[in-house]
Input
Amino acid sequence: MKKKKPDSIVWDDVQEEYIARLLPYASQASGPVIKIPNVDAFKQKGVDKVSKQFQSELEELKGKIKDFVKTASDTQKVYTARFKFEPVVGETYFLYEGDQENYLSLIAPDQWKKKFLGAYRLSSEYKWEYVKW
Output
């Protein structure tokens, strides 16, 4: 028969090793009090912060998508219009409604009596940007 260890010694007969360091509680009366922290409050605070951050990022992305769709729509609208000149980057041009198709012009709406659809500026990336007129 094996020699039995004293009660103050934490010994595992199966693994044949001291296991006091593995226990989730103190193994001696004079040992430190081991408290398992309550992490639920930490988790909830983290979830709240991350949720707010994700919501903010989502709103920002929605704004970017709206801007992208508007720019893409304006660019397509101007490129499908009829014009017989090569637009210069940075210049503002005027889009008018025609009988069969829209057309781009150099003439401002206050100098002409045509149905004005909007003013557009050609960017350096060759995208058409709406300009308030």
User: Anything to note?
Assistant: The chain has a mean pLDDT of 89. The chain has one domain: 38-131. Strands lie at 11-12, 17-18, 92-96, 103-105, 116-122, 128-131.
